[in-house]
Fold this sequence. Notes:
Elements (H helix, E strand, L loop, with lengths): L2 E8 L3 E4 L20 E3 L7 E4 L9 H15 L2 E3 L21 H4 L5 E9 L4 E9 L4 E10 L4 H17 L8 E8 L2 E8 L6 E2 L7 E6 L5 E6 L6 E6 L4 E6 L5 E6 L6 E5 L6 E5 L6 E4 L7 E6 L5 E6 L6 E6 L6 E2 L7 E6 L5 E8 L1 E8 L6 E2 L7 E6 L5 E6 L6 E6 L6 E2 L7 E6 L6
Amino acid sequence: MQLNLRRVAIAAVAAIALFFGLGRGTSSAGEGLANVSLTTKGAGHQDIPLALPTPRGGTATDEFYATLRRDLELSGWFRIIDPAAYVEPTGTGIRLGDFDFAAWRTPGAAALAKTELTTTADGTRAEVWVYEVAGGTKLGAKAFSGPKTSARMLAHRTADAIILLVTNQRSFFDTRVAFVQKVSGNKEVFVMDVDGGGRRQITKNKAINLAPRWNHAGTALCFTSYFNGNPDLYVADLAKSAIRRISARTGINTGCSWAPSGDRIALTLSPGSDSDIFTIDPLAGTQIAQLTKSPGIDVSPTWSPDGSRIAFVSERGGGAQIYAMSAEGGDAKRVSFSGSQSTSPAWSPKGDKIAFVGRDGNFDVFTVNVDGSGMQRITQGGGDNEDPSWSPDGEYLVFSSTRTGASQIWLASAEGKHQVQLSQGAGGYTNPHWSGHLSW
């Protein structure tokens, strides 16, 4: 089934309808109009022809445009038409009536996004007007303001607006990805914008720091650090730029995962010979409950979006596999059934699937329904692919991959399509974790 996002039925009045239908839709608006509609198979198919002329006016237009174009390409919704095919003169107006739609039907655009940057006394203002081309219809317009140095932020907000106006789907450029990178032989925690820019270093302790995980408010990260010699658990308050240790129990303190309510952290502790799943208070670090007690390892907890269940890795059945249990412990049922090693579970925000890493020669990313059915392979034949994490809407995954050499952060749609590298630089990027929607 194809998702007809804004299929156009044009008569005396151009009307836009949002509906589901079978087959690729078309639109017509009389003699001479291109037979092009805003129809798509879904995220990752890059099948909406979009014209994106350079912004009018202002300063920092190069940075704004480069960021905006990369965002729209990363989203997987659009096939951006080569600017060499544009026939409209550069600098033509952006509002309805300022330009001729015929100039955009010629290169075969289904959608048109026109932008303008204005420098003000307080900073920069970005304005975007989005159109359906065949019927000459405005889909909507948005404006955003920020400091003079905020071209990247304004571009991200503009990209989100374009995607929402064309597809009626909320995008993810108001999110960030936390990750670990090698720095001078150590491993430090960073966060970055989804397009790989806007990097911010969180830890600078010149130690081994691992597995950062966002809280659901996007204000803090928990992670494991060997700063004091033992794998202890820390929390970084991002608003205050403060880091504190919350669990330094004997053995490992690792694999943290915040409950959706924010009042508990699940993690792996090893007070005895086995490792088990526990919950602790994220402020005081005090133990709340021990959730597993089976022989063998139990590690890597991840919460269901409603907070009622936890998936984790266990060797209780022989070989590491994914299990799911009540958030209060007990009632564990096996979810993964292929291969001898399945690790790194991540529960989808939609609640229906769990992403994980399986070994089939190399390490690859898979998804499976919560009941263990419908396993789907996301990566194959490209180095080791590990540490999957979902976008807030459950439509995309980020993961680390060595397919081009040193590990980088990659994105794929939930179907495994449209795989693209996010991180930039020499590599050594691991343990990505995708935040929810942020306001900072």
